[in-house]
Amino acid sequence: MTAADVRDEPDCDHEHGGGSKPRLSDPAVLERAAAIFRAVGDPARLQILERLAHGECCVSELAEESGDGMSTVSQRLKLLRAERLVIRRREGKHIFYGLADSHVSELVLSALAHADEHG
Amino acid sequence: MTAADVRDEPDCDHEHGGGSKPRLSDPAVLERAAAIFRAVGDPARLQILERLAHGECCVSELAEESGDGMSTVSQRLKLLRAERLVIRRREGKHIFYGLADSHVSELVLSALAHADEHG
DNA sequence: CGCACAGTTCATGAACCGTTGAAGGGAGCG
DNA sequence: CGCTCCCTTCAACGGTTCATGAACTGTGCG
């Protein structure tokens, strides 16, 4: 029995009988994973993450480097924090942001490297 | 000289002099990487990718499994294809979709596993 | 206390996105 | 050819997201 035999029955209306349904993820898990990707799926936020991969930084510095207002940057950080991609730490008047863990750093840097190669 | 000495100069308005700017990514690279994440950052599209990680599938089957219209599914696939996350192959009346490469499969499955653990 | 500085929150308008039904395209079959 | 089936494209609408300035919180300083 070859693989071609399977294609003898290409009718999608048929049941797949065998019960080899690989089982889909829970909708909540799907939503959670998607939310994380969505948070990273914005150039401005991705840039912040890249910047933070090189070390902690306060809001006003991020604002100055990106050329956007502090309010704008704060909103972006709020979203990244909601997805637990970044953490913050207070020091006097300043609040320093950093990546939550090394997984985030790897994800961001490898994605950028990949996007750089495959233009 | 300790790390505390560095914090003696927390004034963000100062130049960072030394030229140790880790260099930001090109805006086009940032946009490209973000576009990929954005494509995966939707539960419905992520579900499609998960499904395809288990093997090729035609549009009508994807539609039936998700309970959405074929038009809807086709639109989602169009977007995924635009980001080169999936490829398609014609076979008679059917068009089979599959993941573009193993990187996509790894990304999707590891993300879902991670989202499953860390509720 | 009063002021300045760092950051957040809130409200709003613009831009963007996802879904949907209708119409179109292409392959097979009689 | 004409019909059906599978799929794609188009246009429209409703919802979400993003940027922005104004108001607010909180910290330090004199």
* Strand segment count of chain A: 3
Provide a count of the helices of chain A.
6
Q: Into which percent range does the helicity of residues of chain A fall?
A: 55-70%
What is the mean predicted local confidence, pLDDT of chain A? 86
What fraction of the residues of chain A are assigned to beta strands by DSSP?
Answer: 5-15%
User: How far apart lie the N and C ends of chain A?
Assistant: 43 Å
What about the largest sheet of chain A?
A: 3 strands, antiparallel
H/E topology pattern of chain A: HHHEHHEEH
- Characterize the overall form of chain A: globular
Give the largest chain-chain interface (CB within 8 Å): A-B, 46 and 47 residues
Any low-confidence stretches of chain A, pLDDT <50, length ≥5? 1-19
Gyration radius of chain A, in Å: 22 Å
Neighbour order of strands in the largest sheet of chain A: 1-3-2
Quaternary organisation of the protein chains: homodimer
Structural class computed from helices and strand pairing of chain A: mainly alpha
Q: How would you characterize the overall build of this protein?
A:
The structure is a homodimer of 119-residue chains. Chain A is mostly helical and 119 residues long. The two termini of chain A are 43 Å apart. Chain A is built from six helices and three strands, in the order αααβααββα. In chain A, helix 3 crosses helix 6 and helix 4 (59-66) packs across helix 5. Chain B binds a DNA duplex (30 and 30 nucleotides) through residues 12, 42, 44, 58-60, 68-79, 90, 92-95.
